[in-house]
Amino acid sequence: MTGSTERLYQTLERLKGELSQLSETFEDTYREYITALANAVQHQLILATYHLCTQGYPEAFLSLSFSQRQALQLKIRQLAKQVEPSMLQSFYRCTAEVMQEARTATTSSPSPSAASMTSTTDEDDEDESEEFGTISESDQAALEAFAEEFELPDDLFSRVGLQRLSMGDDDEVPFMETDSPEASGPDLFDLQDKENLPSLSDYDPMTPELIASWQRTVEQGVSRVLSQLSQRVNRLLQSRGILPATVPPKLVQAATQVDATAETTTNVPNLLKLLVETESGDESRSQVAQLLAVRLRLSDIEFADPTLKTWRDRLRELSSQLVKVGRSYHEKQRQRAVIEAESAWRSSWFEEED
User: Fold this and answer.
1) In whole angstroms, what is the distance from residue 271 CA to residue 203 CA?
2) Residues facing 312 on adjacent strands
């Protein structure tokens, strides 16, 4: 092994260490971010429901008795307190699933060295296509967007071997409605058992693609919890007679999932205003009514909270570091591949006898 080759391998080992350290820093930062986000959500959810009850539907709120108003307010506070444990459950579930998918892809795909020893000429093409596994269209699009945002090489994520990283509706962790933040169940992690909680930094080998995919699924989990909380609060408000009973519950639920536009947003953060067709006793006639509903939006919450914005800026800095380390890592991986290919060529080459 030449001196330059040895230095290349040493550089690769150093970059792997940096990626592992970066993944650990990412995890610590996201946990702090989730704590700050939970505190901000509690405050802003109460502000949003206050405005909805006092400015949007004051008559409906006044029709409640004193004890009913207190019970409603208590339930809203209880729901808000479950944001942090719900987000942590989602955080650790995303971590466990991403690592499991990566292990599955690794064990189901032969390594380049193993493939070269066992393949024949007829099997070369098949081994090449299976070597790096497959990735769903949605995951590929997300990774390409990540690459485009940070000006990564076009093929940076082309060989990532992760499958089914996003969670479908059937796989969602239910929003926790309990008085105990430490509540656990068959599908929940024990948040007090720190030693046994999944950690991305424990995965080996660490790659830039794995960290980027993990970050995306964590962000999806955060948005999912906010959407679930919005739906729970709106159902609560409708069950108490604050939101119009003539509006179908499924429409209220769908309202929390529409994209923000100038026609649907209000001047009050985390509230949504829509014109909807309401049910009527006469099927031949329909009425159009204005619906005001809670829709917690991450952008609104972060904008209104300086502490949360600081943590978001820190996450952006880590993403930039990931891009920088990822570029170096893939450049050195490419150089190693060239060196090993040249060595493999020389080892298998022989001169034909005349």
Assistant:
1) 41
2) none
Q: DSSP string of 233-270?
A: HHHHHHHTTSS-TTS-HHHHHHHTTSPP-TTTB-SSTT
The whole-number pLDDT of residue 230 equals 93
93 has a pLDDT exceeding 90 = yes
Please choose, from the candidates 294, 240, 268, the residue with its C-alpha nearest in 3D space to the C-alpha of residue 70: 240
3-class SS of residue 30: helix
Structure tokens at 282: 């006469």
> Does 238 or 283 have the greater pLDDT score?
238
Q: What is the pLDDT of residue 6?
A: 84
Give the number of other Cβ atoms within 10 Å of residue 6's Cβ: 10
User: What is each CA distance from 50 to 9, 76, 149, 272, in whole angstroms?
Assistant: 60, 10, 38, 14
Q: How far is CA 141 from CA 78, 129, 150, 157, 213, in A?
A: 38, 20, 14, 10, 11
Mean pLDDT of 21-44: 95
| Highest mean pLDDT of the ranges 1-15, 127-141, 236-250, 309-323 | 309-323
- Say what the pLDDT of residue 150 is: 43
Quote the DSSP letter at residue 55: I
DSSP-derived letter for residue 131 is: T
- Amino acid 253 reads Q
Of 46, 32, 29, 30, residue with least CA distance to 81:
46
Find the angle CA(80)-CA(85)-CA(87) to the nearest 5 degrees.
90
Compute, in degrees rounded to 10, the torsion defined by CA atoms 63, 67, 71, 74: 110
Question: What single-letter amino acid sits at 34?
Answer: I
Contact 89, 178 (CB under 8 A): no
Paired with 276 in beta bridges are 289
pTM for the whole structure: 0.74
Nearest to 34 by CA among 173, 184, 218, 181: 218
Whether 118 has a pLDDT exceeding 50, the answer reads no
